[in-house]
């Protein structure tokens, strides 16, 4: 199983903090496509090219492969500092 | 030393503790980022800083290590606040000590540039006369970070 | 604000007074130069800072004005000590506040680069096991200053 | 009349803080040549190309012209900060 975390605008727009699912063997791109199928809102925001993805707290690109237990996070561009 | 915290920091305390027992550093550069009244054309009252705790810690630790490997530094201090902040509050402290000033200035700029472009913090502003708005990412910050890569 | 003085300065006090009533500045950059143990290959115990009082005041005032005209800054603070200084003592403070960090970083580097290359201060070091030696001017400092011209 | 001030190594090498003389109408170069005539030590140090000259607290080059009352200062390259 995998945990997918959402932050900031993305969390608010989806109305969701976390989902649990099995992403073993998927790429990040495939995971986004799977989640986008949930409804129109998820589709709009998860396929947004500005969404950043981290796996185990490190930024990755859409080709990154997922294993069981990986913590995935999706979020908008950062605005700290 | 990295720290992510709700409470304010005391710049002077960090400066003193960074230099304790240090007779080597001829140069200290400090940067403080603050909540300012006008941001992206909006009158700001206060803001809320959200973050991704496991990743901010991991990323800032990594950033500190990178700076220490890229420049001959004595110490690096990175403090970033989260939670509710008001106008003129301190948000972030970057402090660097080194034998020479060139290394200290470059490393301090590197740290804040990368932090702003990569560390998972998000600002939600409470804007006068409105509700709240998420601050939009600044393209200029991506360019500033890219110059180091 | 410029000051040339024998007594030490309190970095935190300068920081606080610089920001009093300022809700505009999102960025503050501070540089502190200190007496370090090894300089130009010599083990330093203490040093004596001589200056040309009328000219240091005139030059630093001019330098502050130049920085204010070159960058959108809120405030500039320049403090330089003179007289007898010991190992790890603070020598110089450059502090700059601005809406944006790029201006603050650039102006702080400009101020310290020009100060080091042009302001009439001279260091005489008391070196371990020896008498005293006048510090030789650093060619690198002339290059750092020239890049701004 | 004019006051000429010496600082740091130059002051120590000459063993002199200040001299008073009339430099009206001289260039800085001429003033250095006049002072260099005092003795071998003055000659060595005043004609050193590294010596900097300020007139009324502003750095000038050897061609600068001097007027009555100008405060002249001569000193080695600066080492503050």
Q: How many E strands of chain B?
A: 9
The neighbouring-strand order within the major sheet of chain A is 2-1-5-3-4
Relative strand content of chain A? 25-35%
Task: Give helix and strand order of chain A, one letter per element, not per position.
Answer: EHEHHEEE
H/E element sequence of chain B: EHEEEHEEEHEEH
The percent range for helix content of chain B is 25-40%
Q: Which structural class do the helices and strands of chain A define? A: alpha+beta
The portion of residues forming beta strands of chain B comes to 35-45%
Question: If you average the pLDDT of chain B, what whole number results?
Answer: 95
- Please tell me what the overall shape of chain A is: globular
* Chains forming the largest contact: B-C, 34 and 34 residues
Structural class of chain B: alpha+beta
Strand segment tally of chain A = 5
* Overall morphology of chain B: globular
| Rg calc of chain A | 12 Å
The main pleated sheet of chain B reads as: 5 strands, antiparallel
Helix content of chain A: 25-40%
Mean pLDDT of chain A: 96
Amino- and carboxy-terminal Cα gap of chain A: 34 Å
Short description:
Chain A is α+β, with helices and mostly antiparallel strands.
